[in-house]
């Protein structure tokens, strides 16, 4: 009986760990996609417009016949877009020229405050 409870607890903890990892992976994916989008832009857009662009890009990148399509998470995408919008103009200029640095800056801004 104790073994069964331990097994269930381990499964629940493992699943919650995967959920956190999936959230981080998805946030990272949205940051990468957003950096690709903004690299060619000269002006800034609103959070809502960036979320819409990310949703469109995500839908296009997933084939309709794929079995493991990840649903678009507007809340996470909004956090990523807000991370971009909150950067200074100087940081945005730098980020537009360096995709890796762009992702890092957005991820730092998009991290939820505890």
Report strand %: under 5%
Describe the oligomeric state of these chains in a short phrase. Answer: single chain
Distance between the amino and carboxyl termini: 37 Å
Overall mean pLDDT stands at 81
Protein name: Secreted protein
Keywords: Signal
Signal peptide: 1-21
3D architecture notes:
This protein is mainly α and 114 residues long. The protein has one domain (2-61, 72-110). Helix content is 75%, strand content 0%. It has five helices and no strands. It is globular and about 40 Å long. Residues 1-21 form the signal peptide.
Question: What topology does this entry show?
Answer:
Blueprint: H1 2-39, H2 47-61, H3 74-85, H4 89-97, H5 99-110
Helix pairs in contact: 1-2, 1-3, 1-5, 2-3, 3-5, 4-5
Keywords: Signal
Signal peptide: 1-21
Protein name: Secreted protein
Descriptors for this entry?
single chain, 114 residues, mainly alpha, 5 helices, disordered N terminus
Task: Summarize, please.
The protein has 114 residues and is an all-alpha fold. The protein is built from five helices and no strands.
């Amino acid at each position: 009986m104790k073994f069964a409870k331990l097994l269930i607890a381990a499964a629940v903890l493992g699943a919650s760990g995967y959920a956190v990892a999936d959230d981080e992976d998805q946030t990272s994916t949205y940051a990468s996609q957003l950096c690709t989008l903004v690299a060619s832009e000269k002006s800034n857009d609103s959070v809502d417009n960036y979320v819409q662009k990310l949703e469109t890009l995500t839908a296009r990148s997933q084939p309709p016949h794929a079995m493991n399509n990840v649903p678009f998470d507007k809340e996470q995408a909004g956090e990523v877009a807000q991370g971009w919008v909150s950067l200074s103009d100087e940081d945005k200029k730098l980020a537009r020229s360096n995709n890796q640095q762009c992702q890092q800056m957005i991820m730092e801004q998009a991290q939820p405050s505890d």
